[in-house]
Amino acid sequence: MLDLYGLAKFSDGFPEYAQQAQCRDPYERVGNLEDAWRRDVDFPRFVPHLQLHEFEALVLVDVRVLKTRFIEHAEKVDLLAKAIADTGKTPELINDGEETSPSCRITSFLQQYERQKADAGSAAATAIGLPRLRAACPHFARWLSCLEGLGR
Questions:
Q1: pTM, entire model
Q2: Which of 14, 52, 57, 106 lies 20 to 30 angstroms, CA to CA, from 94?
Q3: In a shared domain, residues 64 and 136
Q4: Which helix (H) or strand (E) holds 112?
């Protein structure tokens, strides 16, 4: 699992990155990049996943779970939740710009998240739970289903 947003740092070495940069449909773009990655690695058990747009998209499914970690900032978390809802987008489609990526949206309301993102992000995703993550993030859900199907 890699973040699509972070791939820009490795664009010269990632298969078909430049060709896919013009693709405007995020799901098509990420699918094409994963297919190129799979072909490049060429190993039958390799199941690539590029998270749209970064891991924090999973946290955006329900940022209110951050209240348990950042109790003293509950009001800011509520404002963040409203801002996310106001986008009208599913978490995976939240913009991947420098100022509007999922992690930037979180830290713009909750600066403390930046220093704790590894622990706080994984704890938030755990608290949200796989059923809700799957329901809100179809690309992530497809990857999980693929992994689950490997044992059949």
A1: 0.89
A2: 14
A3: yes
A4: helix 112-128
